[in-house]
Design brief:
Layout: H1 13-30, H2 40-60, H3 91-106, H4 110-139, H5 141-149
Helix pairs in contact: 1-3, 1-4, 2-3, 3-4, 4-5
């Protein structure tokens, strides 16, 4: 049975990122395409992964664990505008972007950057804009006021 109270995104974002990352690894294995030989790439990647993981952690905690009476993606009951949501309505997606790009740098694969472009477009049009329409319909003026205060990404 399909729930009707959802933003109707094209796919769950973590699955989109995982699929895109696995595709970049497959492409790198089939036809290696390094970013370069500079040792700073590893450190840039590690820093990006750490920043992204921090955003993911701060943006997703505290959240009750899913259970029999608590579905994994219940409809939102309130707007969150604290913590990392003070600056962007999408800290989790910004965090996933940073982790993805950081892995591409740390693993020295240009394929990661190439695959990131369509991933970012799918996220923007297939997930984020749909979620924004859903939240605007669900929370009305409160959401519009929040969106006027924050930037979409950073």
């Amino acid at each position: 049975m399909k729930r009707t109270d959802t933003p109707d995104v094209v796919a769950l974002p973590p699955l989109l990122y995982l699929g895109a990352f696995l595709l970049s690894l497959l492409l790198q294995w089939l036809r290696p395409w390094p970013l370069g030989a500079h040792p700073a790439l590893l450190w840039l990647g590690v820093a990006s992964i750490a920043a992204g993981a921090t955003l993911l952690g701060r943006g997703s905690w505290p959240r009750p664990p899913p259970g029999p009476n608590n579905p994994p993606h219940p409809p939102p009951t309130a707007l969150v505008s604290e913590g990392p949501f003070r600056s962007t309505p999408n800290p989790l997606y910004v965090g996933l972007h940073l982790v993805f790009l950081g892995l591409a740098c740390a693993l020295n694969t240009l394929w990661g950057l190439v695959v990131f472009v369509p991933l970012a477009l799918v996220m923007h049009y297939g997930v984020i804009l749909r979620e924004e329409r859903y939240l605007a319909a669900r929370f009305g003026e409160a959401y519009e006021a929040y969106r006027a205060r924050v930037r979409r990404y950073l």
